[in-house]
């Protein structure tokens, strides 16, 4: 092997070493990523024109607080089984979760509300609604954790109905066991999972935190969701 070739090889190795160091430095200095999974609550529905996830929605509020990039994958109307299917089959969702440093999960409100309406005509279906929802949330957690070791914030379900309505009182009767199930799933999923209690945070203050004649959070409601999510992450 001649000296010229050895010299050329040495230059290539030096350049390769510098390039690798540069790439690593860029990766280390890049902003972390928050991926938000859920339904129209995550999306920030009815906060603005609904053409895209709202910058006032809680994932974006959290992103500003944490100085992270935000990928809001909330989809209006989704129940738990649709998110579960997306995590299993949709590469957009799978890749986003793979590259996440933080994942927020806020799902189940549509299962609950649709089941509530259906159970008015047929009360016998209610146990199946809650059982299926909690099973799906558990399976969603399994899928997320198979894709990433990111920190995960799991939200429970708040009561969206006005505090002075009979519906509010009935929902307050139905939600606690469901929310206890969601909490059990979250806290039993490992040390990288934290729980954010939206039900307790919203309490009976729907006039402040829920859009009038709607069941979606106001901007203040989203700020509250961001606050309890941020605090849950800091607790860990």
Protein model, in words:
With 236 residues, this protein is α/β, with parallel strands linked by helices. 60% of the residues lie in helices and 10% in strands. The chain has a single domain (32-235), classed as 3-Layer(aba) Sandwich (Rossmann fold). It has a five-stranded parallel β-sheet with strand order 2-1-3-4-5, sandwiched between helices. Strand 4 (151-155), helix 8 and strand 5 (193-196) form a beta-alpha-beta unit. Helix 3 packs across helix 11 and helix 6 (109-121) runs antiparallel to helix 7. The longest helix is centred in the first third of the chain and has 27 residues, at 3-29. The protein starts with a helix and ends with a helix.
Record field, number of beta strands: 5
Profile the largest sheet.
5 strands, parallel
State the separation between the terminal residues, measured CA to CA: 58 Å
Approximately how much beta-strand content do the residues carry? Answer: 5-15%
State the strand order across the main sheet: 2-1-3-4-5
Series of H and E elements = HEHHEHHEHHEHEHHH
Question: What is the CATH topology?
Answer: Rossmann fold
Structural class: alpha/beta
CATH superfamily label: SGNH hydrolase
**Helix coverage percent of residues?**
55-70%
CATH class: Alpha Beta
Mean pLDDT: 90
At CATH level 2, the architecture is 3-Layer(aba) Sandwich
* Count of alpha and pi helical runs: 11
What is the oligomeric state here? single chain
Question: Unreliable stretches, pLDDT < 50, 5 or more residues?
Answer: 3-26
Tertiary shape: globular
Pfam families: Lipase_GDSL_2
Organism: Bacillus salipaludis
Keywords: Hydrolase, Signal
GO molecular function: hydrolase activity
């Amino acid at each position: 092997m001649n000296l010229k070739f050895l010299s050329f090889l040495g230059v290539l190795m030096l350049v390769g070493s510098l390039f690798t160091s540069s790439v690593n430095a860029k990766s280390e200095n890049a902003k972390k990523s928050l991926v938000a999974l859920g339904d129209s609550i995550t999306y920030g529905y009815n906060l603005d024109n609904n053409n895209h996830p709202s910058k006032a929605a809680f994932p974006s509020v959290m992103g500003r607080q944490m100085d992270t990039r935000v990928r809001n994958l909330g989809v209006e109307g989704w129940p738990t089984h649709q998110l579960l299917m997306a995590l299993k089959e949709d590469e957009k969702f799978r890749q986003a979760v793979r590259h996440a440093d933080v994942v927020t999960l806020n799902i189940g409100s549509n299962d609950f509300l649709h089941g509530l309406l259906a159970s008015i005509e047929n009360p016998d279906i209610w146990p199946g609604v809650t059982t299926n929802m909690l099973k799906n949330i558990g399976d969603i957690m399994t899928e997320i954790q198979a894709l990433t070791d990111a920190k995960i914030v799991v939200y429970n379900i708040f009561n969206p109905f006005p505090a002075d309505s009979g519906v509010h009182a009935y929902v307050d009767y139905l939600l606690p066991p469901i929310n206890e199930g969601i909490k059990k799933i979250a806290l039993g999923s490992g040390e990288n999972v934290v729980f954010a209690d939206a039900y307790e945070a919203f309490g009976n203050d729907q006039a402040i935190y829920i859009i009038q004649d709607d069941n979606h959070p106001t901007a203040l409601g989203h700020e509250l969701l961001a606050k309890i999510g941020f605090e849950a992450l800091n607790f860990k």
